[in-house]
User: Fold this.
Amino acid sequence: MLKVAKFGGSSLAGPEQFRQVKKIIEADPARMCVVVSAAGKRYKKDSKVTDLLYLTHAHISYGVSHEDIFSLIEQRYYEIRDVLGLKYDLESEFKRLRSELTSDIPVDYLVSRGEYLTARLMSEYLGYAFIDAAECIVFSYDGQIDYEKTYAVIAEKAARTPRFVMPGFYGAMPNGVIRVMTRGGSDITGAIVANALDADLYENWTDVSGILMADPKVVSNPNAIEYITYQELREMSYMGASVLHEESILPVKEKNIPLNIRNTLRPEDKGTMILENIPEGVASNRMITGIAGRKSYSVITIYQKHISNDTRIIRKTLEMLENYRVDVEHITLGVDSFNVVIPTSQVRDRIYDIISDIKSHVHPESIKMDDSIALIACVGRGMASVPGSSARLFGALGENNINIRMIAQGSEEISIIVGVDNRDFERTIRTLYEGFMSEETENK
Assistant:
């Protein structure tokens, strides 16, 4: 069995966290491939190494002294090395890096050194080989990852050194220039390694024991999700749940590799298992897998008699929104009207121009706009097989005097989305969570 284990910055913040990671790796011989982020925060008011590196570059760019900030980075890595009794030559690394701290230093290269140095120390500490992501993660000149070449290179290197540590977050273009991913990119690196090696399991170790059913800032102590499908996960991520970087899901989903979210500080917790399909016998009896949502949408409603028979009006409206580079989140169609839901942030300064252009080019009978709308999704594969799931949802909101402004449901029936006023956002999430969980408790 082969497991790829990715550890986030909070799992690598200092010597104690390094020790905990080593215990986890040594507890399972199948954890042969390790991907690491840069050292994260040690305590609440601490700084992530990645943030300090970005700040260092900003100071260099503006001609401000960066010495104090860069010294903090050095101290972090010296502390990890010295406390753990490692021998890696950090002095030479920092001497070379300091000589490069000029206005010409590329920001991607400088920022990538956080993952690079963390991986160097971790590889020595575990006794694993070090494989530089710059030699494996292949970017094209257009900034996209060349997955085919990347998978081939990783497989080739792993064949020679099956137990290795690789830094996440960055790769290199064909000319060797370092390129970083978006924030959270180490998740992507881990998924890529799992795909390239046909891993049996991809473990993503972080500071929480899996994915929660609702935002803990809104719902007090929400239950963890034991099993979730990739499709449900995408629905929740799309609706604002802080789960995983979307690109980190695709490489493992492609090969149906299970993804396990685990807690470094509580390795005994099973965490959340993400699968393409939930095997029989382990599926949860919950109708709702999770609840997620986002605030601040605008809804444009266009009225025209028999609009459902004249799709040109819909097409022209969507074309105009595309011209303004506005994302369309949802569309609902009636006999004489249709709604377009768009992010308020994208149209705040030009909504009247957009409405004016729609009137001029589409010529509807009337247009109405509402803003301050929140969208909340109840996601659950169990809803399709449970009669009356929509009625329960709407009933719970009605009993709590929450006005539903709009409703949308996909054809696969794994999510129901309701639109409510922004002011009712938190109350709606709590109402839905408490309603469905209380029913589940009663049915046990």
